[in-house]
Amino acid sequence: MSNNLDLSQVAEAQDQKFQTINDKGAELDAALTEQVTADVSAGNAAVSAAAYRRAIYIKATGAATGGRTVTLPAIKRFVAIANTSTTHSVQFILGSATITLAAAASATAPTIAVVYTDGTANGLYVVTGTTGGVVSAFTDLTDAPASYTSQALKVLRVNAGATAIEFVALTLALNADFPASYAGAGGFMLRVNAGATAVAFEAIPFLVSMFIPGTFGNGALMAQLVFDRNVSFPNHLTGSQGYAQTNATSSTVLDLHKNGAPVGTITFTNAGSTATFALSGGATFAAGDRLAIYNENPADATLADLSITLRGTRT
Q1: 2, 126, 219, 237: which has the fewest C-beta neighbours closer than 10 Å?
Q2: pTM value?
């Protein structure tokens, strides 16, 4: 029968057996509840066999420099070891086996590991980890990043191989149904695509809508506006619409001007009420630029009450 804790034993024909039994109870109580302080403030420390058998918690204190060690005896035991120093790590050793406990997070949060010593010369093993390392921080995990350096504001995800976790930038572009790049999408909006299968970047529409009542004389200025932002119109004003409440007597061409110079046309025919547009290569207007519509010269006698919407994009 083993007696690894070196407990008091009742001898044969012993008087006052209760005393020995009470002593053994106290020794067991100590082995399950007491602590030993290993002060390494002045140098390395060693825990005696007697102290090791009578404590469950071995606490290193006062590590004022790196490399301080606490030597444990070769006795079969489960114990908790701790480093309470907030400035330096401490090594717990048994023969050639070493367990390093990092500096404590605070005075009330020591770095702790549960270990087993198997009674052999080098028999020191970590119970709280399977690789011999002690987890005192998230970065100590073997399947996690080793450092927080350059990882500010990033999030965690399982890696592509489903074998570990990694830090990644928090960005919508990570999703498969999202555009792969922001290149060329400055100032664009995000919306669901026409197929309702993903999201896409699109330029923000800019609509110029107007109603021009009545008829106008030869070459008259029919409408004019000034832009408060940058706006681009596509080739031949794709997507624009025009409607005449009263049709033209003959085909009528209205002139589009940018800052006083002609850039395109709006044509109404005598055969229908809708308009066609011409703007070769499109046109871009900056804040402060003017867009004007001038009547044909000579004017059509009947074309009247026009509704026009020019479709562009904000740039």
Answers
A1: 2
A2: 0.47
